[in-house]
């Protein structure tokens, strides 16, 4: 982890598809500060919650005008990763239609993610990384706990503070 990097982990959860949904994100800013965020929707899908987690994490960076050079976003969702790095450019070009001409699922969220992502690309280098879910990657596991907590209405306590205090509570993140 470099000093001028923002590391983001995101996850989404849905109890039923559709069903009660939750999303979570952990944002590590310049190897110093950690901010956890999360939320809930009464009726959603796992894919919608995955996209929402990414949107909200990027909105956090945008709103706080965080000084850094690079954003690295980790997700265990192939749908989110492929959507934002591969498919979205064709969807925009084809007026939000898939290659066979069908409407893009979750278009409302993809439009928001595309806009915030495009805005931030003017200031930051943005990299998307696929991680394996449920494989002991600390921040990914924490996002999963946040997302499933919100989807099950157990509303987890979210942390905001310095990295040292975070690691005292949750153990080393690396």
Which helices and strands, and how do they pair?
Layout: E1 5-14, E2 19-29, E3 33-44, H1 46-64, E4 70-75, H2 78-93, H3 107-121, E5 125-130, H4 138-151, E6 160-162, H5 163-170
Parallel strand pairs: 1-4, 4-5
Antiparallel strand pairs: 1-2, 2-3, 3-6
Helix pairs in contact: 1-3
Write a structural description:
By secondary structure, the protein is α/β, with parallel strands linked by helices. The protein is 41% helix and 28% strand. The protein has five helices and six strands, in the order βββαβααβαβα. It has a six-stranded mixed beta sheet. The radius of gyration is 16 Å and the shape is globular. The termini are close together.
Key phrases:
single chain; alpha/beta; six-stranded mixed sheet; 5 helices; 28% strand; globular
What structural class do helix, strand and pairing data support? alpha/beta
Strand count, sense and barrel status of the largest sheet are:
6 strands, mixed
Low-confidence stretches: none
Strand content: 25-35%
Biggest sheet strand line-up? 5-4-1-2-3-6
Summarize the structure.
The protein is an alpha/beta fold and 174 residues long. The chain is built from five helices and six strands.
